[in-house]
Amino acid sequence: MDMRRAFSYVFDDDEWLTVILLGGLILFVPILGQIVLIGFLCETARNVATGNSRPLPKWNHLGETFRLGLSGLLIQLVYALPIILLACVFGCLLIIGTATLRQSSTVVGSVIMLTFLCILPLLSLVSLVVQPLTLGAMVRYLQTGSLGAALRVGAVADLLRSDMGGWLLLWLLQILCVMIGSLGSVFFGIGAAFTSIYATAVFGHLLGQMMARPTPT
Predict the structure, then answer these.
(1) Helix axis angle, 164-187 relative to 153-161, nearest 10°?
(2) Which residues contact 170 (CB under 8 A, 6 or more apart)?
(3) How far is residue 205's CA from residue 197's CA, in Å, rounded to a whole number?
(4) pLDDT at 163 over 60
(5) What's the CA gap between 188 and 194, in Å, rounded?
(6) CA atoms 60, 63, 68, 74: torsion sign
(7) What is the pLDDT of residue 105?
(8) Distance (Å, whole) CA 47 – CA 211
(9) Averaged pLDDT, 205-217
(10) DSSP single-letter state for residue 191
(11) How far apart are CA 215 and CA 29, in angstroms?
């Protein structure tokens, strides 16, 4: 995986500054901005995988970018369902356990709180499994254009097993890109919107590199 290229290719585009600035402004639009950001990621990855010499997407076809982002969001939500359900149970147990302890029902409250503490590591474990699966599902969708193919968990798992080391590295790089994207909020306040566009472009290139690799049918 060419990490140096992923971090530098953005600046090879003559219009990179315009792309970053316009993308940052779009991110300020609630909901729409986040969906378009996912679409920007998908389009970048697809361009890289197909060998586009200027893979940085432009903002002159927002409808297509939005459509890709909406599909990507749906994939993320479906794969996040186990986390969402566990988080709901987690929250309910915390509320019930706290209320029970306040009512002096020490034994019952303690059992509930103990169960709560047991679910916490389980939630973390499920999150570790779900995120790589989500990335694989996104790649399956971009390769096939089919949401059905993206939601076939067995096929996605086969994709991950074909290169466990590569997908693990990609997942770690995703975390790094999220950290880079958040730097704008530390140093420039609202600049996080613009650093997020750059970080998304970087990760899109990395995702596109994974797409371009031979995969099992």
Answers:
(1) 100
(2) 1, 132, 135, 206, 207, 210
(3) 12
(4) yes
(5) 10
(6) positive
(7) 53
(8) 10
(9) 80
(10) G
(11) 37
What tokens were used for 82? 């186990």
The residue among 27 and 190 whose pLDDT is bigger is 27
Note the maximum CA span of the chain: 68
pLDDT in tens, 61-90: 999 999 999 999 999 999 999 888 877 876
Task: Provide the mean pLDDT of the chain.
Answer: 85
In this structure, the number of other CB atoms found within 10 A of the CB of residue 68 comes to 23
Q: Which residue has the tokens 């290169």?
A: 163
Half-sphere exposure at residue 80, Cβ-oriented, CA atoms within 13 angstroms: 10
Enter the tokens of residue 27.
């991110």
Residue 12: both structure tokens together: 């090879």
The DSSP code for 104 is T
Instruction: Report the pLDDT value the prediction gives residue 169, as an integer from 0 to 100.
Output: 92
pTM of the model: 0.84
Number of residues in the chain: 217
Tokens for 78? 């479906």
Tell me, what amino acid is at 96? Answer: I
Residue carrying structure tokens 């994207």: 181
